[in-house]
Amino acid sequence: MTHPSQPNHHAEVVFLGTGTSVGVPVLGCDCDVCQSVNPRNHRMRCAIVLRRGAERLLVDTPPDLRTQLLRERIPLIHAVLFTHEHADHLFGLDDLRLFPFRLGHPVPLYCQRRVEERIRKSFDYAFVERKATHAGSVPQLTFSRIDDDPFEVLGIPVTPIPMKHGPNFDVLGFRFGDFAYCTDTNHIPPSSLERLRGVKTLVLGALRKTPHPTHFNLEQAIEVAHSVGAQQTFLTHLSHDLEYEETSKELPTGVALAYDGLRVVALLDC
């Protein structure tokens, strides 16, 4: 598949997955959503890719990563940015093994200290100081430490959005120009809301209709969307509690459910 080229100040955003940590359909579940034939009710674990020119920035490495990249015909990832270290956002990391052959260098990973520590522990075989049996036998990775300060990856300006994922767990959302991606959270502090002012497209986690201890539910996410005031808000990290067509009818103007394969454009120089 060919993609229309975007000017350097734009990026195409591809939603690789929009589902909760167990995905939808849920294993062993026979509810109407899990049995649905509507492809917009089929949700792999959350990730997005930003394509700027020929380069692609991946946000998170979910367990479904190989299938997602094949589905979207994305042949190469140039760098990876991590929101946090939970398994549904991390454990597809080994699928990066092929990319250093084409890049000519290890895959750059941008993450906080805590995420790097989890990667080094969970994928310890990639960091053992011994001779590899053959090229590509383990992921080739390099780390760039990030914090709350803005930075740049592949020419894309990135503003971290510090958030809470439950009372005692810190995660990051990210703003890329007029586009912001804020999954896995149930509290965005006032200072972080200020960093979202002026975004035109907001992506926000909304797990289900009933309250949850670590995620916004649908009502809470809509309240935050109204507070931010983006022209368009897409809800992600969706469980099987949210049937696509029925839920869409309930949403206010400017708020919609995201779905796997959705594409939007971000303006980077704003």
TrEMBL record:
<dbReference type="GO" id="GO:0103043">
    <property type="term" value="F:phosphoribosyl 1,2-cyclic phosphate phosphodiesterase activity"/>
</dbReference>
<dbReference type="InterPro" id="IPR036866">
    <property type="entry name" value="RibonucZ/Hydroxyglut_hydro"/>
</dbReference>
<dbReference type="Pfam" id="PF12706">
    <property type="entry name" value="Lactamase_B_2"/>
</dbReference>
<protein>
    <submittedName>
        <fullName>Phosphoribosyl 1,2-cyclic phosphodiesterase</fullName>
        <ecNumber>3.1.4.55</ecNumber>
    </submittedName>
</protein>
<feature type="domain" description="Metallo-beta-lactamase">
    <location>
        <begin position="44"/>
        <end position="215"/>
    </location>
</feature>
<dbReference type="InterPro" id="IPR001279">
    <property type="entry name" value="Metallo-B-lactamas"/>
</dbReference>
<keyword id="KW-0378">Hydrolase</keyword>
